[in-house]
Amino acid sequence: MSTTQSELRGLVVSAVPVRARPGTLGRAWVHVPLALVAVALLVPLWWMVVISFTPPAEILRPSLTLWTAHPTFQNYADVAQRLPLARLFLNSVIMTAGVTAGQLGLSVLAAYGFVRSRFPGRDLAFFLLIATIVLPPIVTMIPVYVALARLHGINTYWGLILPQWAGCGFGVFLLRQHIGAIPEAIFEAAYLDGAGDGYVLRRVVLPLLRPSIAALGLLVLLNTWNEYFWPLLVAPATSMHTVQTGIAQFVGEGAELWGPLTAASTVVCAPVVVAYLIWQRQIIETFVASAGR
User: Fold this and answer.
1) Which of 17, 58, 161, 259 is the most buried (most CB within 10 A)?
2) For residues 76 and 59, what is the distance between their CA atoms, to the nearest angstrom?
3) Residue 213: which of 100, 115, 292 has the closest Cα?
4) Residue 106, class by beta-carbon neighbours within 10 Å (0-12 exposed, 13-18 middle, 19+ buried)?
5) How far is CA 145 from the centre of its chain?
6) Which of the residue ranges 28-32, 39-43, 71-75, 238-242 would you say has the lowest mean pLDDT?
7) Separation CA 134–CA 137 (nearest Å)
């Protein structure tokens, strides 16, 4: 009578008591602090949603609990009256879509070039590009603003979008790691069939990079959607305000506006929260894979 190795392993594992199995208790202790951190991060978001449904007269009462006893949509109605939400969302969507598409396109092309091309100074150029990741954006904002002003780019969509394409250093680094991990045999087989670099990039590299590109795109989308200072600087006109600069007018106008402020913040946060919940698996898998390369 023969027993396979997998069957023997199953018998041994089942014979060991649960308490004696190594690692179970250790993993539980690791999850406890992570759960506490998650709760600490989620409580402010939950509190924001609760206040957005709380009547203004009850917001500052000490008896306010984890949920209001008299929920109301009045705060959201006030936001709709005070803010041109459709215009704010349109401006944010245009800026976010333009920046995300531009950074993804530049990141893919630059990463492929750094991996597959051989040219003098390649390593130095890559090092200088990566150095831009740690460069504070405030250092370049004034020179870029002066250049935009001379090119009549203030209060324009292209003035909002094009300068932010320069922030693709992290995307180039991330995609370069994944392109470099593709087996050389795949490229050699494509070249033997007569394929050029353009065909290889479209038909070979991009399908393999789809999860990484999706994760990078979501990160760029979240960062651009939450951008505040750059739209405030280069698009001061009311018609060019984004959602972040639009809701800023509630700040400092008095405690009676805490309800509309939290309602506006909830509306602004909802799209990015939903997007992250949908694509969080791709983000985690991409960064775990990058760490091991």
Assistant:
1) 259
2) 15
3) 100
4) middle
5) 25
6) 28-32
7) 9
Q: 106-131, pLDDT tens digit by residue?
A: 999 999 999 988 888 888 999 998 88
What fold characterizes domain 77-291?
MetI-like fold (1.10.3720)
205 contacts 195 by C-beta, under 8 angstroms: no
Tokens, residue 121: 């100074």
CB 160 within 8 A of CB 232: no
Residue from 83, 99, 66 nearest 260 by CA:
83
More confident of the two residues 173 and 194: 173
Mean pLDDT value of segment 135-158: 91
Query: Which amino acid makes up residue 153?
Result: G
How far apart (Å, rounded) are the C-alpha atoms in residues 242 and 28?
43
Cβ atoms of 88 and 241 closer than 8 Å? yes
Q: For residue 231, what are its two tokens?
A: 């739209």
Domains in the chain: boundaries: 77-291
